[in-house]
Amino acid sequence: MSDNDDVPFNRDFPLKAGVVEEVRPGVRRVLCNNPSPFTFTGTVSYIVGTGNVAIIDPGPDDEAHAAALLDAVRGETVSHIFVTHTHRDHSPNTPRVKQATGAPVYAEGPHRASRPRFESEKHNPESGSDRDFVPDIRIAHGDVVEGAGWRLEAVATPGHTANHLAFAWPERKFNFVGDHVMGWSTSIVAPPDGSMIDYMASLDRLAAREEDLYFSGHGPEIPEGQRYVRFLIRHRKAREASILHRLAKGETDIPTMVRAIYIGIDPRLTTAAGYSVLAHLEDLVARGIVATDGDPVIGGTYRMA
Hints:
Blueprint lengths: L19 E5 L2 E5 L12 E5 L3 E5 L6 H10 L4 E6 L11 H8 L3 E3 L29 E2 L5 E4 L2 E7 L8 E5 L4 E5 L17 H12 L5 E4 L8 H23 L4 E2 H8 L8 H17 L3 E3 L8 E4 L1
Parallel strand pairs: 4-5, 5-6, 6-7, 11-12
Antiparallel strand pairs: 1-2, 2-3, 3-4, 8-9, 9-10, 10-11, 13-15, 14-15
């Protein structure tokens, strides 16, 4: 999204699809060839450990990417598969990798919305959720899973989706943060799949932790992770201030706010920007700062309470 001058984005990510790259000892990554305005250069899958390894986020329903991942671990044993969340660019390749390796799948659970849908809401097409996904082993915040030479701790990071987990490797100060934190762009938070209230609380949770090198679901690794998270928190608070500034001029709707706030936005991201504004408005309505008639929905009009 545009007007993010306050966040030090890094869009330098020369990794080619299908190539395995050791980014740190014990951490390899393979890029899927699914570039888009939402996925940047594509989804990044991670291989953790050597010899006996875990795969994080097998990626979209993509045979070539599954083959590249399996090729990268040829001669090794895949003992665990982890999934950060159930969007279609992260989890649908899981059955292919599981079938080839026999490894059990660890995740928070099946896809679910952050809140019940309101009557007036149609299904949000941007969500791209994988409703077929079911993990073998459900894990929750604080659960630790150990393999050969690695140890991952589940960190609940709802917001982008309700079931989003990050996987921290505390001894190495690494955190595999999925789509909750990305170095190339801000994350999309689209209700009812996503929740800004949850998203902000999850940023605070990450900022309070020790891990300082983040491996993201899209784009390059993020050094000084906690510092970067503080930039994101400031950015979201600035976005909220922009919304309130516009509402101070009188009652308005979401498309008007998007035009006022996201100057020069890629037209393909306008719908996503609208849902991001809605996520902020849900939070503001819940806090009693903004009012609307009925439920806070994408087609509503909003005013200062």
